[in-house]
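1st attempt posting a full record on here, be nice pls
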Amino acid sequence: CWAALQCCVDGGHAPLLDPLCCCLSWAKMGDIEEVFASFLAAEAVEGEEALLYLMRRCKGLAVSACAHAVFFCRLLQAFRVSSTGKALLTSLADSHSLKVGIIGGGHLGKQLARALVTVGRAPCSSVCISTRCSENLSDLQKLGLTCFYDNAQLAAWADVLFLCCLPSHTPSICSVVRPAIRKPCIVYSLITAVPLPR
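the predicted structure (as tokens):
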């Protein structure tokens, strides 16, 4: 995998192997955790001390999922730009920016959008969220993100589509999204407990 990465980058230089390279600056885990400050309380409510471990684990899994998603988008954007003969960029903000769609505006969908904009430095115009309750995302709309409810429109627009919905909603969402996806589009599922073939 690393050898393939090294061959893909001009001159044999692999920015991911060089910690001093400014091409793809690494976000510190603390930077991503700041995005999750409002996600879950660090302390248990009286009578729920036994659940504190689960709450911390849930937050850790969400932070990890968003960190992977941000890294994936930045890596994909870097390869897109390098394949057009331009120098690698440190952010997604350029005329050929990656269009990221998020289906689901719950806790994970909101935090992913916030992480892409703050840590991933994606322009707000390149991140859209489709959710049933777009009025609940007023904080993201204030940041400049587009929030609406049309999964097919989002799938047709996006280069990368993140599924952040409930497992029970997966069949209905996939039946709407599948015919609308244009090629090439990467569908990145953050849905738990749903096997890939389903």
